[in-house]
Amino acid sequence: MKAKVNQDICLGSQDCVNACPEVFKMEGDKATVLVAEVPKDVEAKCKAAANGCPAAAISIED
Questions:
Q1: Rg (Cα) of the chain, in Å, rounded?
Q2: Which sequence spans correspond to the domains of the chain?
Q3: Among 38, 40, 47, 49, which has the minimal tally of Cβ within 10 Å of its Cβ?
Q4: CA–CA separation, 19 and 49 (whole Å)
């Protein structure tokens, strides 16, 4: 599974970083993805972070 952050609509709320720091980090005022492939053991946390994004800026690909 892969996660992507749409930089054009990211609000920089840091909700994704707080929910899943294994996958997301802040770069300046925007979130970015740390890993090319989401580790199996944090997939649920990553999906929760995507679902909780106030801007719906995170997409998940299987």
A1: 10
A2: 2-61
A3: 40
A4: 5
Distance between CA 28 and CA 51 in Å, rounded? 22
What is the CATH code for 2-61?
3.30.70.20
Q: Which two tokens stand for residue 38?
A: 């989401």
Question: Cα separation of 11 and 23, whole Å?
Answer: 17
**This prediction's pTM:** 0.95
Q: Of the candidates 47, 51, 55, 49, which has an alpha carbon nearest to the alpha carbon of residue 18?
A: 49
Alpha helices, DSSP H, located in 1-62: 15-19, 43-52
**Which stretches does DSSP call E strand in 1-62?**
2-5, 24-27, 30-33, 58-61
